[in-house]
Amino acid sequence: MSETFLRRLYFFAIGLFLALPLIVVAGVSVNEKQDLTFPPVGFSMSWYGQIFADPEWRQALIASLLLAVSAAAIAVAVALPLAWFLWRRIAPWANIFQLLGVAPFILPPVITALGMLTFWATSGLYGQPWTAAISHGIFFVTLPLVTLSLGFASIDRSLVEAASTMGADDRTVLKTVVLPLILPYLVSGYAFAFVLSLNEYIVAYMTVGFTIETLPIKIFNALRYGYTPTMAAVSVFFVAVAALIFGLIAWFGDIRKLLGAMASEG
Amino acid sequence: MRREKPQSLADYTPLFFPGVMLVVFFVIPFSTMIAVSFFQRDPSGFYTTAFTLDNYARFLSLFFAKILGFSLLLSVTVAICCVALAFPFTYLLTRQVRKVQTVWLVALLSVLSLSEVIIGFAWSTLFSRTAGISNLFVGLGLLEKPVALYPTFGAVLTAMVYQAFPYTILVLYPALVRLDPTLLEAARTLGCSPMRAFFNVVVPALRNTVVATVIMVFVFALGSYLIPQILGRPQHWTLSVHITDQAIYQSNMPFAAAMAVFLVLISLALVGLTLLAGRKESAS
Amino acid sequence: MSGLAVSNVTKQFGDFKAVENVNLSVPHGTFVCLLGPSGCGKTTLLRMIAGLEEPSSGAIVIDGEDITGVPTHKRNFGMVFQSLALFPHLSVGDNISYALRIRGTAKEEQRKRADELLKLVHLPGFADRPVTKLSGGQRQRVAIARALALSPKLFLLDEPMSALDAKLRESMQVELRQLQQRLGITTIVVTHDQREALTMADLVVVMGQGRIRQAASPIEIYRKPADAFVADFIGSTNLLDVSTDSAGRAVILGTAIPGLAMPQGTTKASVSIRPEDVHLGQPGSGAIEGTVTFVRDLGATIETYIEAGGSSIVAVTTPRERVDVAAGDKVGVILPAESCVVVKS
Fold first, then answer.
1. Is the dihedral of CA B111, B117, B122, B128 positive or negative?
2. Coil, helix or strand for C6?
3. What is the pLDDT of residue A266?
4. What's the count of helices (H) and strands (E) in chain B, helices before strands?
């Protein structure tokens, strides 16, 4: 009994540890009054409605979504040709671009944030909304770059050779063979970048924090200046969105493989 | 198509857009930041262009040494706690059936997407006097009356471990999921109980992975910016907090930049170590 | 049509010569097998013909046209890869009509051609099946059908049977040969299995260490191997030293072999004799004296292993011709001159 029981207990403890803050946040979000009490006093789902009803929260939501959509697109637009080039060609010096692609993410975020701040400030473009999209896009390049590199590596090169024996030139191979095969990795790379951008605070803050409020910025401000359970509702909402997106990826794809497992075994 | 060297200039086209983007929006900002670290502080604007080593000289103060020491100590502790907790968990996870693994992975990815703000907020509630877990302890008879468990070092540590935990698992996952199961089977036939097999076979086999993961989590923890502010006192502020503080509130961008450069150097050195450890492992 | 001509082709990787000075002429409609052990250069040669590798020197000419510098996608040769390389994201039908699709052929045309080819490879009605749900043998047929979609000039196959189990392999060899004869298409197959080569090919090209050792019909390769390497690689054989004695007679293991002629000017060489041509009888005049070390009765054949004069000889007989010997018995070994082939060492 001991082995399985211990393991189950361990998993349960870890699960509890991970879920605890979520439980708190969920509890706070259903408070009836504008109080951040836990356990919740009364029950009301109105704060979830606030996300869409209250113009300030709604604007923040839209800003976050727009930012995430465009930042993830930029990240993928940078990562795809790079990953393709590194797979297609032997060019050892080009690996420096891979390093550059990974660097923003590996380094502490405040570095990238500060770098972006100095850059935009120096160039006089500080505060424009699109600077956040570019900043986030570069910051999150690593995610699609990693998933796409994994994806390209998983393509059997004899498929490409077979296509060329049948008359496909480079472009046709790319269109008819390579792209369909890396599509799941493309989608997951985009999804990762999207979700992380939605929740990212410091780069957004340092680049456009004074002109635009994204949801994480607004939440932090709310923490300091004006509490409402809406903030907790937003967090639960975001986690639900993330769970949905990743759940969809898991449903349609092989998430174990996308995270590093070899081709599926039982 | 065979993998070959670029033949013509046109073959380099895919590299154009990523190259430009990365150089313009990463290399240049980075270089600007390094440059700014040598500039002089201008209280009214961002900075004035003058070359000075003052900013780096401040590193030599006791104050700074204390901050640095604390940041490093905190990050190391977080890294070790995380890996110690996550390694057995990830190992056991990879032995489960596909469905179980998938569910856990989706859950972990969702938790990973929680922003630092929320984590800070949630744990501040959990550690508060009125609503926190100390009330639970009172109920269990372990405490006399409820007490606020923050702002303390322990609170900061717990929240940071929480934040880094899913990341640690995802870093460990590829190595552990590819671990040769016959290694353990061999150990079992030789008489090891599963737990002994784990400690005597798995851990030593993945020694370099563990070290590399500790380093990666260390760098990740160095980046924690909000949790030390929400759950700790100013003495608990890490380097990242001070950098932002100096940049935004103290209007001292040059000093902030200098500290940032310093942080980068440490991070790069550690990542370099990680790569070396990784190379050694694949070579052995 | 003149067919394929490979002239003086060499492929070098750094210092290593994977293929060295290969000359090969393949008339239109021939079934060729490139045969040899792994690392002999046969796959590299095939890939150069396909355009997937570029020769370091030499030329590849088809029907009088030099295609050495022509990229793969312009050569229009059908190829079946060892891993079969079926596109996992396309159905069987879409796989087969891929070549047509990328040339902009109309959908009905594509469908018609795919159905035609599926009938040809005995898989009617499989067009809409996903590729992942096929057995090994079915996948191979689809790969073959796909390669033939545009009725190419050359049909190239790289170890096509390696993923199949033994029984299926045998029947596929026959099928592939029949298909080729039906279509009359020039076919080149790479294989390391000499049985396969002997079954299917009109022309067997034995390669070793990057060079062609012998290119001839299966029977000639078997009966008259050009050198010890070929003799040893094809079927099993006995390789024994032969020398000339003072009287000018050929001598093997101390016994003169009447009627065996040595090539002009050679006093020392090797002789290859197939186990089924070795006669066993009583020890006595004219026969090589040997001791039986092992007898293996395989039902359809009997293998007798003999040790004679420090060399081992294997004799294979059918049960009808069996000689009643057991391990330890003394036996006389007769090597008929007409079955001995003098080979270069």
1. positive
2. strand
3. 36
4. 15, 2
Domain definitions of chain C by residue range:
4-229, 237-343
Residue B193 sits in a domain whose CATH number is 1.10.3720.10
Return d(Cα B102, Cα B100) in angstroms, integer: 5
Interface check for B102 against chain A (CB to CB < 8 A): the answer is yes
Pick the range with the lowest mean pLDDT from A86-100, C12-26, C283-297.
A86-100
Q: Where are the alpha helices (DSSP H) in C73-165?
A: 92-96, 98-101, 107-120, 136-147
Cα–Cα distance, B164 to B112 (Å, whole number): 8
At A160, list the tokens. 């490409």
Q: What is the dihedral of CA C261, C262, C265, C271, to 10 degrees?
A: 170
Among candidate residues B236, B234, B223, the one with its CA nearest the CA of residue B270: B223
Q: Which member of B28, B118, B194 has the closest CB to residue A3?
A: B194
Amino acid making up residue B265:
L
Alpha carbon distance B246, B227 (integer Å): 17
Alpha-carbon distances of A78 from A84, A178, B129, rounded to whole Å: 11, 17, 48
Regions in chain A scoring below 50 on pLDDT: 264-266
| Nearest residue of B to residue A203, measured between CA atoms | B244
Are C136 and C163 in contact, with CB atoms under 8 Å apart?
Answer: yes
Confidence of residue B47 (pLDDT cuts 50, 70, 90): low
C237-343 CATH, one of 3.10.20.30, 2.40.50.100, 3.40.50.150, 1.10.8.10: 2.40.50.100
Question: How many independent structural domains does chain B possess?
Answer: 1
DSSP string, A111-126: HHHHHHHHHHHHHT-T
Domain that holds residue B66: 56-283
Site of tokens 């013909």: C49
Cβ partners under 8 Å of residue A217, min gap 6? A60, A201, A204, A205, A209
The token duo for C282 is 């009583």
DSSP string, B142-156: S-SS-----SSHHHH
pTM for the model:
0.77
Contact at 8 Å (CB) between B271 and A106?
Answer: yes
Average pLDDT over chain C reads 88
- Candidate from B27, B88, B244 with C-beta closest to A100: B27
In terms of Cβ atoms closer than 10 Å to its own Cβ (0-12, 13-18, 19+), residue C125 is exposed
State which amino acid sits at residue B151: P
Cβ–Cβ contact B260 with A under 8 A: yes
> Which backbone phi and psi does B241 adopt, to 5 degrees?
-65, -45
**Interface residue of B8, B31, B110 to substitute, partner A, most A CBs within 10 Å:** B110
Tokens 């008259």: give the residue.
C224
Interval A222-264: pLDDT, tens: 777 766 777 778 888 888 888 898 888 888 777 777 776 655 4
- Whether residues C98 and A158 touch (CB distance < 8 A) is answered with no
Q: Measured between CB atoms, which of A74, A97, A110 is closest to B225? A: A110
Tokens in use for A90?
């032997």
Q: How far is Cα B241 from Cα B250, in angstroms, rounded to an integer?
A: 12
Here the tokens at position C107 are 């959908």
List B4's β-bridge partners, or say none: A89
Q: Which residues of C touch A162 (CB under 8 A)?
A: 79, 81, 85, 87
| CATH fold for the domain made of C4-229 | Rossmann fold (3.40.50)
**What residue type is A256 in one-letter code?**
R
Q: What is the predicted pLDDT for the residue at B282?
A: 58
Residue B119 exposure: Cα atoms within 13 Å on the Cβ side: 30
- What's C282's DSSP letter? -
Q: Is the pLDDT of residue C148 over 90?
A: yes
Q: What is the ipTM of this complex?
A: 0.79
